[in-house]
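## Example record

The block below lists the input lines for one assembly entry, exactly as stored, with component labels intact.
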Amino acid sequence: MITGKFPALRLRRSRKTDWSRRLIEENNLTPSDFILPIFLIEGKNKKQSIKSMPGVYRYSIDKLNFIIDRAIKKRIPMIALFPYISKKKKNALGTEALNENNLVCRALKEIKRKYKNEIGIMCDVALDPYTSHGHDGLLQDKYVLNDETIKVLLDQSLLQAQMGCDVLAPSDMMDGRIGEIRKHLDKHNLKMTQILSYAVKYASSFYGPFRDAVGSKNLLKGNKKNYQMDYRNINEALREVALDIKEGADMVMVKPGLPYLDVIKKVKENFKIPVMAYQVSGEYSLLENGIKNNLTDKNIILESLIAFKRAGANAIVSYYADRLDHIIK
Ligand code: PBG
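Predicted structure tokens for the full assembly:
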């Protein structure tokens, strides 16, 4: 029998009731913790389901108000645009990226016209939706050329910024591109356009469903290991972040998310700057499969998302961003 003073402190005391648990909670989620990715498709009146990502859709520009109105109503601060480009518009150089009437540019103009600064708009800077080989840059003998790719990314950045993009998010992993993009924007008087660098982006198999969503999956030749990071490494991640901060990044991204919480934590602890985490498509699909097959309940979504906050993420790019109140009771 337990007698006397043992144990003086019972941590279970504060766990006994719901009100008490709420009182001592250390982390929580609010709508401001999210960035909502939106897939774009050409055409009219389209809300197209995506086979690899049940519950996520591609929207034609005229249908965007449906999802953006909802995001604003829920007070999500920012959306991220990703285009599905038809095969016939892709080529080895990704020239469609520089077409001022491409899908992203038209969406940017329309969203800005309609919503002004009610919600932030973020766009990827990378060529993969536009290249016939599915790589993020210019390819030569299976190698993605660094400096040559940056030249194209500068034009893509400037174009997207001029069309109304608030936050440019280079996800290409070329060396030195943040500094070059910052200089280029400033030179063209786009001093207030922010840069969210995908500073730490690992060559990951968790991107599979996304590549299907943007139509680059079957095109991709080889892998992205000569520019995206090796998932064995963490010190290298800190070096990437240090460089991008020096070059002028306003925020940094760690990607993928859940398998890389250690990286989020280290980046936050070392640099004290806004750190975004990307709960990528493969993570989404795994969670959805678990729920759909009744292996577990919907709370795995909340549990996974809170983990990002515990690790120190400021916000999470998540395909669940606009649907959380249906999922989390
Ligand atoms: C492309 C890009 C990718 C993602 C976002 N931007 C895929 C890749 O690098 O192959 C992945 C997002 C996801 O899986 O949800 N630069």
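The radius of gyration is 21 Å. The chain has a mean pLDDT of 96.
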